[in-house]
Fold this sequence. Notes:
Elements: E1 11-23, E2 26-33, E3 36-43, E4 53-57, E5 64-65, E6 69-72, H1 88-102, H2 106-116, H3 119-127, H4 141-159, H5 165-174, H6 179-182
Parallel strand pairs: 3-5
Antiparallel strand pairs: 1-2, 1-4, 2-3, 4-6
Amino acid sequence: TRRSSDLKNAYTQFMVMKKLYKDGNKQVYLLSNKNGYKKGKLPIKHSLNIGDVIKIEDSLDGTIDISDFEEVKKFNLEDYLPSVKRPLDEIMSDIEAISNECIISEAGRKLNDYFFNDENFLDKFTHGIGGVSMHHNYIGGLAEHTLNVMYLTKVLCDRYNCRRREIAVLSAKLHDIGKLYELDYN
């Protein structure tokens, strides 16, 4: 890898997510950071691996033509993965508000609390992704998706005078918890 010791603050760090295709004498990569995804072209004589983090001069639009880069060895993975735009605390507060309004029986509260009073579960839930490519495919996406489904379920139950509102809302809240074990953003 090529390294430059005089890179300035105008440079941005990206993680290599995927090797896309060759374009003449350059390899095109999919690069990522918290702001989203960009394509970067690098001469074929240099090679990057998926998961590498590089510091490069960023272009505001289009594909980045990488002429110089520095490999970053120490990094926090979450700094290079897209994440939910809204603060997770707000999302979780809204989930809790709907839960408190709709999940009222002793059995419903026990089932809810079994998961949502477990700190390990909550950490995974708030950092979980809602999907791989179709929807909510970013850190915090699972919590955002769950809130959306809970909200829509509550609105529909209220609109159509649902007799099993608590079960419907609790089901909406728990419907994707298996994704914590099925999908891994690492």
